[in-house]
């Protein structure tokens, strides 16, 4: 039950109680992992209660508000988590930006907003994790990228979201081959395949 004891997990996009990010944190904590999660514009009272909930499972828990669309977000995140908990062996790229668009609404700004979080943020977090992991004493690492149903059929009025999530699938495949010699596995997971009725996005 506690097979993740002494491991540290970073989970992005944990901004409300019913989100996928919060569910991931709970499950990892129940397996013994210490948790560091990021959020964006979440209610302070909920954050306090959620941290306490995670700590009640017998693990450490810290968090930080980070705008993952910023160029330096990946560096600041790993600097912070290493300072307060230590360097993580698990990275869950769960944060996502999603605004309904469709061909009538899609413009450069909407596309850039999706790209900044869904693609660039995920890519930079993943490679920063791998670079630092290579310099650490850890032997096994995990990167899990949360995707959506973009490969299973049309996502009407979700053009930017579907396109950027689709890019994550391609990135995952290539990165997994690059970092396998380091002891890092890289996988993409579509929670909608496991959750009846689909999923909420953070």
From TrEMBL:
Pfam families: adh_short. Gene3D superfamilies: NAD(P)-binding Rossmann-like Domain. SUPFAM superfamilies: NAD(P)-binding Rossmann-fold domains. One of its GO terms (biological process) is monocarboxylic acid metabolic process. InterPro entries: NAD(P)-bd_dom_sf, Sc_DH/Rdtase_CS, SDR, SDR_fam. Belongs to the short-chain dehydrogenases/reductases (SDR) family. This is Oxidoreductase YjdA. The gene is yjdA.
